[in-house]
Amino acid sequence: MLSVLLATGASYFAVERQQPLYASRTTLIVGSTIQSPNPTNTDFTLPRLLAGLYADIAKREPVRNATMEALGLDGLPNYTVTVPVDGQLIEIVVQDTVPARAQAVANELAVQLIARVPETMSQVNPEGEQFIQEQLSYLEEKIIETQDAIAVAQLDLAEFTSAEQIADAQTDLSALQTKLTTLQSTYASLLSVTDEEPVNTISVVESADLPTRPVNTENWVYVALAATLALALSGGAAYLLEHLDVTLREPEDVMRAADAPVIGRLARASVRSQDDSPGGVQVTDTATPDYEAFRALRINLDFAGGEIPLRSILVVSPGSGDGKSMVAANLARAYAQAGRKTLLIDADLRRPSSHKLLGVTNLEGLRHLFGAKPPLKTVSQRSSVSDNLWVIPAGSGGPGPVEILNSPRMKQIMASVNEEYEVTIIDSPPSLLADASVLASSVDGVLVVVRLKHTPESALKHAVDQLRRVNGKIVGIVINDPSRAYSHGYLGYWYGSGRMEPGVGNGRGPIRAFVDRLRGRARSTTDPGASGEGRDSDGHS
Questions:
Q1: 505 has pLDDT over 50
Q2: CA–CA separation, 356 and 280 (whole Å)
Q3: Which pLDDT belongs to residue 5?
Q4: Which of 266, 355, 357, 422 is at a distance of 20 to 30 A from 342, taking alpha carbons?
Q5: How many angstroms separate the CA atoms of 164 and 469, rounded?
Q6: Of 494, 497, 496, 492, nearest to 265 (Cα)?
Q7: How far is CA 501 from CA 143, 240, 505, 514, in A?
Q8: 133-156 as b/e, with b when 16 or more CB fall inside 10 Å?
Q9: Distance CA 103, CA 404 (A)
Q10: Could you tell me which residues are beta bridge partners of residue 468?
Q11: Highest mean pLDDT range out of 142-146, 282-286, 347-351, 396-400?
């Protein structure tokens, strides 16, 4: 709609700035066939050819220059010279902002075009015409004399009785008749020359008049045409974008492509840059919808594990820019604030970011555990956002990512962290790299992060297939929707019965039932952190 308004406004502004144009027309005709009482088809052929030639000549520089010189102009306004189909007429139409100038130019172009037509015979050689007239008079006299001689010969023939006289008289009569025929034929030829109208002539049929009304008064047609064209183009572009867009656009698209439940839908999880100051991207107020969304995701993961809680979770995404690292950092913080001893391992050795997100250094990390094999505590750092959260950053230097993650040493590290920490969150490289597949079989569950209107559907399908080929257990999908702002009472999407149910946050519906169930479990156990219930470290239930 905006494109239509812009096109309409621009076209209206453009046509309103145009000066009024006036058109004046001169009509010429080639030849004089129209004056003949009995014209034939051949009488029209040559004038039609000549009309096309003269129309082309009228556009040439000699005619243009002669017209400018005659009128004292430095240039000519726009004009057209056309010949109607199968016609002898030539139309010269001049358009100008000054009506009088349009009229003068149209008439002068006609004058200059007529000046290039060959003159008639009477204008070229008047002596020749006089000679013809004299010959016609002489022939008239001879014809009369010959006719009189024939009449006398016919009378004499009737009086002859002998065969010899009759034969001689008939011979003389025949000669006179032949002479008469010749004289009459010559007379007719000369007479036709004097009476014949020339073909190669041009005359004015209609002179140019002074225009009084502009011809560009229908500007609204151009405005409507611009609006229609803009509407068609914008509609076509929208249609193409809609059908050529291969990204995931709705949660239903995600579930269909992954064949896995959606256990969380987050807003603004990847809006902030990874270059923000340490700790500047964390959820610091536990009363905000941001915190509640990650808290709900942590509870959903507890139920996704079934009877056996998930001790190690690999967070992966089909590609870069899906918000994977942000989800991993905030999920680890949610576990830590629930009273669980939590470790975040940055296994994205190609583009590490967890140290920036949680405010730790990257001088030593996962890479250094493959050197002299120091204890885990030498590279793990306690995060400032929670006393229960430790971080093993990626570190710098060392062997390549695949060699590290696929080595027996990595399996030893995973066994050690599972003994020391209650929950281990691993920030994995994107699944399009081999690093993610190596780690998928070493954890209890895989959490896939996708970003609406960013992640291609084919990329999600490929990621899920690749993870399942290495026996990775996909516990759920997290939808990152940066364009979605949290509204009042929005607590994300809850996991249950293999489908999504939106929380309403109003004390009713699935959220209230879910919270009541959690409180019942909390009263029946002495370790609230083991089931993800009870109060967080900041005192919020």
A1: no
A2: 9
A3: 72
A4: 266
A5: 135
A6: 492
A7: 122, 32, 12, 11
A8: eeeeeebeebbeebeebbeebeee
A9: 90
A10: none
A11: 142-146
**Average confidence score pLDDT of the chain:** 75
Q: The pTM is what?
A: 0.49
CA gap 192, 197 in Å, rounded: 10
Nearest to 301 by CA among 342, 273, 251, 263: 263
Say whether 28 sits in a helix, a strand or coil: strand
pLDDT of res. 487? 40
Cβ atoms of residues 257 and 461 within 8 Å: yes
Question: What span, in angstroms and rounded, lies between the C-alpha atoms of 443 and 312?
Answer: 5
Q: Specify the 3-state DSSP secondary structure of 63.
A: helix
> What's the pLDDT tens digit per position in 296-328?
889 999 887 777 788 999 999 888 888 888 899
Q: What is the CA radius of gyration of the chain?
A: 52
Phi-psi category of residue 497: left, alpha or beta, with phi > 0 → left and psi -120 to 50 → alpha: left
Q: Closest by alpha carbon to 426, among 306, 259, 311?
A: 311
Give residue 59's identity as a one-letter amino acid code.
K
CA–CA dist 80, 419 (Å, integer):
93
Return d(Cα 390, Cα 392) in angstroms, integer: 7
H/E stretch holding 29 reads strand 22-30
More confident residue, 207 or 216: 207
* pLDDT at residue 540 in the model: 35
Smallest Cα–Cα separation from 153: which of 138, 170, 130? 170
Give 54-84 pLDDT, tens digit per residue: 899 999 999 999 999 999 999 999 999 999 8
Confidence of residue 231 (pLDDT cuts 50, 70, 90): confident
Q: Which helix (H) or strand (E) holds 132?
A: helix 126-159
Query: 87 in helix, strand or coil?
Result: coil
Query: By the 8 A CB rule, do 495 and 303 touch?
Result: yes
C-alpha dist (Å) from residue 8 to 49, 71, 223, 224 = 46, 41, 6, 7
Residue 88 near residue 47, CB atoms below 8 Å? yes
Residue 113 to residue 404: CA distance in whole angstroms: 91
Q: H or E segment at 493?
A: strand 493-496
pLDDT band at 221 (very low <50, low <70, confident <90, very high): low
Torsion angle, alpha carbons of 165, 166, 167, 170, to 10 = 120
Distance, CA of 354 to CA of 394 (rounded, Å): 8
Output helix, strand, coil percentages for the chain, rounded to the nearest 5: 50, 15, 35
Q: Which one-letter amino acid corresponds to residue 509?
A: G
Residue 61 CA to its chain's centroid (Å): 42
> 3-state class of 294 per DSSP?
helix
